[in-house]
Inverse folding.
């Protein structure tokens, strides 16, 4: 029987984990012919989340727990869970019950049909404020404009990935990461399912605006060198434009005489020209920095305090 891993990042979800566990049990109990493991990653919660998880792990050996030594963020928690998984497919799902486990049978059906990534699209979120919606629209628009990766808007981290995708995922080393961005970047055969988000039952959505902004910036800088190249482009435009102006001025001085453009205009235009050149050089340097930025990062991505119900004793954080 095929093993399917469900990975759940949890930060301050003491009320939600056991509820989610119950719902997962209902769903997985209704699907025959698969074995399951639930990998909860406790992302340094300061509440009773770990206690709840330890309790679940004691009564059910399917439940495996990775306990982070501090809060590393959802993207890294997801990565750790996926890294530790041993299933033929891995399903990632939020702990806050906003992702309906009832979609899992359909995901598996699609996977059995040969799709290697089954992503989900959240149709509407009553909870999201206008500002969040606007921010999300702008973000996806910006990403579409400047990056090579095609990101479908409103997709969520609730997705199934095949073991093949997991294998590739394990080789990815960047630290400022965005889970779904990386999965999208890889390609593979993809299918989308839709769902409507349930309202959060307990606890707060813990991604603050500040964190979301950081995530957006991270994903922009890690999937696109555009911001770095911007200086270069600007420089190019300024150089061409002022070069053109300079030629016009120079020529007209010869042809029409010196009365038409004051000497100061010549100074200004040649200054602008030089500023353009400087920016181009900055852009070039930025390209090199971009390469370095892609290479340097090599600290363990997360620190594990404890692992429950894992058979392999050793833990090797992603590098
Ligand atoms: N989460 C986490 N670490 C964090 C923040 C969140 O593991 O630092 C988990 C959280 O427990 C939940 C999921 O990530 O299972 C999504 O979090 P949230 O509901 O705050 O995000 P949103 O639904 O707004 O994307
Ligand atoms: Mg949520």
């Amino acid at each position: 029987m095929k093993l399917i891993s469900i990975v759940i990042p949890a930060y301050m979800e003491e009320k939600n984990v056991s509820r989610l566990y119950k719902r997962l049990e209902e769903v997985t109990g209704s699907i025959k012919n698969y074995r399951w493991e639930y990998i909860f990653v406790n992302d340094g919660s300061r509440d009773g989340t770990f206690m709840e998880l330890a309790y679940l792990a004691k009564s059910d050996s399917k439940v495996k727990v990775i306990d982070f030594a501090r809060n590393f963020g959802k993207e890294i928690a997801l990565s750790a869970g996926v890294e530790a998984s041993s299933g033929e497919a891995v399903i990632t799902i939020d702990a806050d019950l906003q992702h309906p486990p009832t979609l899992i049978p359909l995901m598996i059906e699609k996977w059995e049909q040969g799709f290697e990534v089954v992503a989900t699209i959240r149709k509407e979120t009553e909870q999201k404020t206008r500002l969040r919606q606007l921010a999300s629209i702008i973000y996806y628009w910006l990403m579409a404009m400047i990056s090579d990766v095609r990101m479908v808007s409103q997709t969520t981290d609730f997705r199934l990935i095949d073991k093949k995708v997991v294998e590739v995922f394990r080789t990815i080393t960047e630290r400022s990461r965005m889970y779904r961005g990386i999965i999208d970047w890889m390609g593979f055969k993809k299918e989308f399912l839709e769902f409507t988000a349930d309202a959060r039952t307990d606890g707060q959505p813990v991604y603050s605006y500040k964190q979301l902004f950081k995530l957006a910036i991270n994903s922009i800088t890690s999937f696109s060198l555009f911001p770095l190249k911007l200086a270069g482009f600007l420089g190019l435009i300024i150089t061409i434009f002022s070069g053109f102006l300079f030629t016009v001025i120079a020529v007209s001085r010869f042809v029409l005489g010196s009365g038409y453009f004051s000497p100061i205009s010549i100074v200004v235009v040649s200054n602008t020209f030089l500023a353009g050149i400087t920016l181009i050089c900055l852009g070039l340097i930025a390209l090199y920095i971009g390469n370095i930025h892609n290479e340097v990062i090599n600290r363990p991505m997360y620190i594990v305090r404890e692992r429950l119900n894992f058979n392999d004793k050793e833990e090797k954080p992603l590098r």
